Amino acid sequence: MELLKSDKIILRPLAEDDLEMIRHWRNKYSSNFYDESYITKEKQREFYGRFQESSDFFFIITLKDGNPIGTIALYDIRLDDRSATLGRFLLLEEYRNQGFATEAVTLVTDLANRIRLWKVKVDCKESNMDAIRVYERCGYTKRPITCFEKTNHSYDWGKPMIIEAVENE
Questions:
Q1: How far apart are CA 6 and CA 104, in angstroms?
Q2: Is the distance from CB of 57 to CB of 118 less than 8 angstroms?
Q3: Widest distance between CA atoms in the chain
Q4: Residue 40 Cα to chain centre, angstroms
């Protein structure tokens, strides 16, 4: 994958050397994501393995001098309906409100157009107003949707789930 460039930033593909850096960032800014759980080194490696086998695009956002300042991705690419999701978007706090986020979203949206996707969706927490403003500036429109979610915080993810069948009498 080639580098994506704008006047201010470069998007370069994720490399294995980036894993610890983005794991640290993801844990630091976990409240901006639906899954706020702590990312272990093992979970990060599993993610990277799945990413390598997918058709997803995952980028490190860098300044022109190569300094990494965030991440962004185009994933869940579906050729049957020519759609994908834009996300895994994180910008370090000290680089916000300077136009970098808008440029990153624009570059990834342009990539989606080049690979002839018809629809790109964004899932974003309603409380993440900074991200919502960026998406709106880039032409994304909010549509009403009802979303239900249940989180089971008591489940021990280290043990396999056992489902028992109960016979009706």
A1: 8
A2: no
A3: 71
A4: 17
Q: What is the rounded CA–CA span in Å between residue 128 and residue 55?
A: 27
Alpha helices in the chain (DSSP H): 19-28, 41-52, 100-114, 129-137
pTM greater than 0.85: no
Only one residue has tokens 């979303």, namely 147
> 3-state SS of 22-37?
HHHHHHHCHHHCCCCC
Element (H, E) at 57: strand 57-63
Burial of 147 (C-beta count, 10 Å sphere; 0-12/13-18/19+): exposed
pLDDT digits (tens, 9 = 90+) for 45-103: 999 999 999 999 999 999 999 999 999 999 999 989 899 999 999 999 999 999 999 99
Give the chain's mean pLDDT.
87
Query: Locate tokens 């799945």: which residue?
Result: 50
- The two three-digit tokens of residue 113, written as one number: 């157009």
Q: In angstroms, what is the C-alpha Rg of the chain? A: 18
Q: Are the CB atoms for 92 and 69 separated by under 8 Å?
A: yes
